[in-house]
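Usage

Read records sequentially. Each one opens with the input sequence:
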Amino acid sequence: MLSRRVLLAAVLPTFIPAALAAQVAPVRLPAGACDYQTRPGVAWAASVRAFSTQYDASSYAATQALGAPNVFPRYGDIPGAWAPQNADSPADYLEVLFAAPVMASELWVFESNGTGGTYGIAAINPDGSTTPLAVSQPMRLAGAASQIVVPVNPPRVVSGVRVEVSSAAVGTYAEIDAVAAAPLPSCQPGAVVAPVATYGTAVRLTPAQLGGLTVPPGAVFATAVLAVSSEYNSEEWSARQALGPPNVFPQHGDLQGTWAQASGSRRDSITLQFPQTMVQEIWVYETNGVGGLYRVDDVSSGMAVPLWAGTAAPLSDGQSRILRLTLAAPRAITALRLLTDPDAVNTYVEIDAVAVVPAAGGIAK
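and closes with the structure output:
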């Protein structure tokens, strides 16, 4: 490959396509500036929708941009990243999709060669259209890998990302190692990761501790799935199995009728819709991988408000649990996002149902 890779002697004039409507300027972070590997709920590109060109069909193919970075933080013309066919091309693009639509507060693009060549980043919407989110002048920057962070404000559901690069502007192949969407604004400069347990407190109760009360009075169950990072299949362990009242609880184990993540998934999330309710409590029915649920966010407004967060860790007594979250004050809720970590409990985290409990006088519409 190196025999064909002749670098340009000078940076060519930069440009921005007139049709690309800028919203924000992307921020480039050096390697190590954000611990992206530990951020919860991150979705990595899972498939390629389209691309302009690729250097080859293997080491520098468009599919090399899928999944977590495997070149970054290294920099250079290194196999394992997408590279356009020609180092003098003024404009190339790559479109990648996530396994399922996700709520994004940030988009990440990892440049592993030709840093500065990325000039346009757009969200691919669930209907297949694109919305430009960031634009900048492509220009040769220091020879080091970078993580581009694009704030998505307000957060929105995205199906994928379109990345536009100019190799000509940087005098070498503009190579993309990975693309991701983050549910929380955790990597942009000045972002503050929400503190733990700021809006409520939670306990995990066994069926015995519930004393036979498996459905609280006035319970309102989830009615629709708004987004999911992955699902084991489209039937027995699909996201929609988390809708409505429980059909597995109080049983425990890897049982059909719950939402379970795809095999090999490390962190996942599901966003559920509810009829508008003034909520005092939230009940989450955990029937396998109990303890793998580590965060509950209110996303009714499109902004993620952390209601409770903890550390994912297994509970090894072989019982189902209900995570009973009591809010410090009632709040109107129409959508909740649950974040899980199957890797932390070494098994599928399975959610049978989610209920919101109205406050005294609360009205479910």
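Summary fields computed downstream for this record:
- The two ends are 62 Å apart (CA to CA).
- The mean pLDDT is 86.
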